[in-house]
Every structure is written in C-alpha cells, then in structure tokens.
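[Automated response] Your request has been received and processed.

Submitted sequence:
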Amino acid sequence: MREGIHPEYKDTTITCVCGNVIATRSTKQDIKVEICSQCHPFMTGKQKIIDTAGRVERFKKKYAGKEQQAGKSA
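Generated structure:
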C-alpha cells in the first residue's frame, strides 16, 4: 500500500437524537444521526401502515381471491 494516500481511521462515537450512543471507528469524528436501530419503527416492531383513502383495504379486497386460486392450480 502506498504511504500517505489513505484517510486517518480513528475511534469515534455515533450519537442518535433518542440518546443512544454507539462507539465505533470511522474517518469522521463524532457523527450525529436522527434515527438508529434502537428507535427505528421497523426495528422496534412499532411500525404502522398509514392508510390514506382506503388504499390498503382496497388492495386486500382486490387480491383476496387470487391467493386461493393460486393454491388450487399449484
């Protein structure tokens, strides 16, 4: 490897707005993020589907019979 072309890789902390602090190594110092694995809705299991104008219900009704038909032909 050539000398002097690689960035300095040092210890740093990643801080989330929820208060979670992660110690890691990076080329940047003291990273601040808005969302992490401790507060992300998908990771915590508190994910909500926001249904606007009944789209989810309309989708389920439209494709409700398709699943049963696919099982019979297989």
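Summary generated for your ticket: The longest strand covers residues 10-16. The helical segments are 41-44, 55-62, 64-73.
If you did not submit this request, please reply to this message.
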